[in-house]
Amino acid sequence: MQYVDVATARDHPMRHRDTLKSIPGHGLGQRTRTKKPRMTAARSRVCQLLLVQPLLTGAAATTSIFDFVNEHIFVHAKLNGQPGIWLLDTGSNLSVISPRAAALSACPAVTARAQQDPYGITRFVSAKKIELANVGAPLDVIGILPRLADKVLRNDGIFITGILGFDWLSRFVVQIDYRHNSIALLPPRSPALPRKSAKVIPLEVLGGVPVVPVSVNGGPAHRCLIDTGANLVNIRWGMAISSGIHRNDPGLKAGPRVAGLTATEMTQAIVLKQLALGSVIFKNLEVSLYDKTAIPWLHGNIGNSLLKSFKVTLDATNRQLVLE
Asked: How far apart are alpha carbons 265 and 257 in whole angstroms?
């Protein structure tokens, strides 16, 4: 996950915890709704404006509304029955919580070593149940990250319980409808038939995170992360150079300061002639170029600034990303 400093807790309307009273100590309200299999003809025309349609034909699921702040997704989930707010981050292979959340939820300590853990976490707990969109599942290993809540509060003005990573999300078919600010979780199954307008992109799960082939300006394809914890599209300089972009390119300009949980970096920005996400082509797309990385084989992040244009389905079991 990565942040960009586009707002602070000082000027964000959600900055004060005492103005958000639905969840004690956290803020933002829990809102869920369930699709009903039957409805009267008289109500159907009204309800089709209100209900979130499933992204794949034949799918039926309970949806949960999320808050989209600074192009980050904040979901309302329960940890061992305790409600809270979580940053939805498919770019993290380890879910993490704050020490306070671990104590409130009575999470027992466990001994574990995280796979490619970028945070340097040394304390771990387990959860009997994490529940989102009326779907629950245990998680054997969760990292405890000190000052996690303070970091997100400073960047996005929201006090969170933790970061819900792909270690938990990959157990489900995850459907994110950015238009309606809703998320649905379906059980793994054989590949569903996408609608004709949908684009299906091959997806790999490497190092516990979802990656897809991406090429820039017609250059070679590289693995990039589908990262709902990032709000921008970020490309490593190595990939840019292999695609014909150089550090003295006249199209370069100062980019945003990209801040993660453990490091920050000043970037440069450029408008690409073309970015191919699988078979989906984007023209004149502005991206940030960066150098630092904790994972050598990872060449970029596809964040919410691009994903928000679609209804997105992440299916780790059948190795596919569906954009509609």
From this structure: 6
